[in-house]
Amino acid sequence: SYGVSESVLTRGNTFSVDLWVLQSSQLRVEVLTLGAIIRSVQSRGKDGQMEDIVLGYDDLEAYVSDKRYLGATVGRVANRIAQGHFVVEGKDYQLDVNNGPNALHGGLHGFNKVSISLENGVQLQMTSPDGDQGYPGEVQVSVSYKLEGDSLTAEYQARSTKTTPINLTNHSYFNLAGQGAADIYDHEVSICAQSYLPVDDTSIPTGEIRGVEGTPFDLRKPVLIGPRLREVPGLGFDHNFCLSSPGEAWTERHAARVCHPASGRVLEVSTSQPGVQFYTANFLDGSITGKGGTRYMQHCSFCLETQNWPDAVNQPSFPDSLLRPGEDYRHVTRFTFTTV
Q: Cα dist. 25→4, 258, 263 in Å?
C-alpha cells in the first residue's frame, strides 16, 4: 500500500487527508482517511479491462459536503433510529434528527465526516467523545481494510466507556458495469435471507420479521433487478434482510451475490453481521455530480450495507445493539470480486 496527502477544510478546521492505495493482481482499491471512505474499487471484467465500480467524487471538498454517504464508513449507528430517541439503562437520549423525524447514520456529523488517523498500514482509528451527536460514552473505533487477491476485507472494532448503541458499516454504492453506467437494471442479485423487515412510511421497521416467501423480497435465487424493482412498494429496495436470528452465535456468513452478466463482474459479500440493508439508490436524483462529471440518477447503483437491524436499540426482539464497558465490538465484512 502507498499513500498521498492533501489538506481539506471542514467545520472550520483544516486537516490533512491521506489517500491509500491497496493493490493486487485482480483489484485496485483507494481508501481515504476522511471517514475511512472507499473512494474507488477497480476490478477486471471478462474482457480483462479494469473499471472503477464504486461511486464517488473527483475532489475532497465534495466528500466533506456529501449528504449521500458515498463510500463512507457510517456510525455510531448506521441506518435509522426512530425519532432519534432511545433509552439506555433508564436514561433518555435524544440524538440529532437528520432524516425526516429520525436519526440516520450517526447524526449530522456521523463518522463519515471525521478524519481518521492511520496506524499499521490501513487500520484507521478515531475517538468519538462522550456525548458525540448525543450518544453516551467515549468510543474508540478502528476500521481495518485488507486486500488479499480478489477479496477486500473490512474489520470494525470498538470499545466504549459507557453503554451505547453501535452499528458500523460501509456505505459504498456499486455499479458492476462501471460507476458511470446509467442504472443497475441489468444486474442480478441474490441475498441469503429467509426474512426481511417491513418498514413504515419513514423507513423505520414496524417490528414484524416477515418471511420472504411469496413476496418481491424473496431474493434467495438470483433475480434481475430491473423487473423486480417494479414489484417492490415505494421507490425501490431500502430494506434490511435478516441473515441470522437474534441471539445466534457470531460467525461469518455468506450474505449476498450480485452479477452483471454483460461485463462478467461478480460481487459476493459475506459478513458476521445479522443483517444487510439492500439499497438501490432510490434517493439519488441527478443533483450529485460524481467522478468524471457523471450525474448520479435514481437506481444507478446499489449498496449492500452489512449491519445490525435498523432501530434495534428501540426494538427488544431485534439483535442486541448495545456495547457495554469492557466489551469488544468486532465485525467483519468481506467483498469478493470475480468474473463469470
A: 21, 21, 18
* Maximum alpha-carbon separation in the chain: 59
> Could you count the other beta carbons within 10 Å of the beta carbon of residue 338?
17
Does 238 show up as a binding residue in the annotation? yes
- Give buried/exposed letters for 25-52 (b at 16+ CB in 10 A, else e): ebbbbbbbbbbbbbbbbbbbbeeeeebb
Give the pLDDT confidence of 302-321 residue by residue, as tens digits: 999 999 999 999 999 999 99
The yes-or-no answer on residue 239 being catalytic is no
Where do we find the cell 460507476? 179
Q: Is the dihedral of CA 75, 70, 282, 53 positive or negative?
A: negative
Among the listed residues 171, 187, 299, 331, the single catalytic one is 171
Cβ-proximal residues to 229 (8 Å cutoff; 6+ apart), any chain: 185, 236, 237, 280, 299
- Is 171 annotated in a binding site? The answer is yes
Task: Please give the model's pTM, rounded to 2 decimal places.
Answer: 0.93
The CATH number of 2-339 is: 2.70.98.10
260 is a catalytic site residue: no
Give the strand pairing for 50-52 and 117-119.
unpaired
- Encode pLDDT of 37-63 as tens digits: 999 999 999 999 999 999 999 998 899
Is 52 annotated to bind a ligand? Reply is no
- Cell digits for 336? 469478493
186 labelled binding-site residue: no
Instruction: Kindly provide the b/e burial profile for residues 147-173, where b requires at least 16 CB atoms within 10 angstroms of the residue's own CB.
Output: beebbbbbbbbbbbebebbbbbbbbbb
In 10 A of CB 89, how many CB atoms?
9
Tell me the helix, strand and coil percentages in the chain, rounded to 5: 10, 45, 50
Residue of 30, 51, 268, 305 marked active site: 305
